[in-house]
Amino acid sequence: MSGGMSGEDRSVGAWLRTAGAVTVLTGAGISTDSGIPDFRGPNGVWTRDPKAERLSTLQDYLADPEVRAEAWRRRLDHPAWSARPNSAHEALARLEDADLVTAVVTQNIDGLHQRAGSRRVIEIHGTIWWVTCVDCGLRTPMRDVLARVEAGEADPRCLRCGGIQKSATISFGEALDRAVLLAAQEVARACDLLLAIGTSLQVHPAAGLCDVALRAGARLVVVNAQPTPYDEVASAVLRTPIGEVLPRLADEATATGMP
């Protein structure tokens, strides 16, 4: 329904307006309009280059300096550095400003929700804007480490202890931060509506937040181009492009004169 509101869009807008608490779960699909490719879509990072997944696997990263060097080289040109929030990020920030969104739980590492104005953002997979030493835990701004890569260091080590450094993101084989996961589960448990946007809902424990919300009696709405394992239990499934439908939902939810 490009360009207009469908009946299902209006229903979701009404749910957003009347729900006591709304938690949003976002995945890579919300950032593709900002120029950041997703992972599993037709043009996804891992679809086009299956070897890229190895760079995000903790065991390979820690064991192989060549994997680390390649990962650092690729980070120099990561699309997040030039990306800007798109209309979907801005719509969610607008809903939060209207007290209609309680929290955004994101699987994304790009920081675009915060740059759009969202304040309560739970980054369950971490952030690409920081680097962490795997030995001593020192956190360093990514820009400082990339400056060393540009200066010729293939595998920049921690300046405090000499340990291996990696982006402050969750790699395959790495456990999520327990406090962050508990915070995400709490906002899922407390919500009346869980809005899952641009996520395949195939990666756990993030996808499990849908189960947490459903068990607590919440509605689930899925906004995603491709089918997900949770479509059958969702109250609504929207296939409209995210950058089109989110602003419309925000308009509907924040419209004045509504009951």
TrEMBL record:
This is protein acetyllysine N-acetyltransferase. The keyword Metal-binding applies. Zn(2+) binds at C133, C136, C158, C161. It comes from Actinopolymorpha rutila. SUPFAM superfamilies: DHS-like NAD/FAD-binding domain (SSF52467). GO terms for molecular function: histone deacetylase activity, NAD-dependent; hydrolase activity; metal ion binding; NAD+ binding. Its EC number is 2.3.1.286. PROSITE patterns: SIRTUIN. PANTHER family: NAD-DEPENDENT PROTEIN DEACYLASE, NAD-DEPENDENT PROTEIN DEACYLASE SIRTUIN-5, MITOCHONDRIAL-RELATED. The keyword Nucleus does not apply. It holds the Pfam family SIR2. It is an enzyme of class 2 (transferase). InterPro entries: DHS-like_NAD/FAD-binding_dom, NAD-dep_sirtuin_deacylases, Sirtuin, Sirtuin_cat_small_dom_sf, Ssirtuin_cat_dom. Keywords: Hydrolase, Metal-binding, NAD, Transferase, Zinc. Residues 1-259 form the Deacetylase sirtuin-type domain. The active site is at H125.
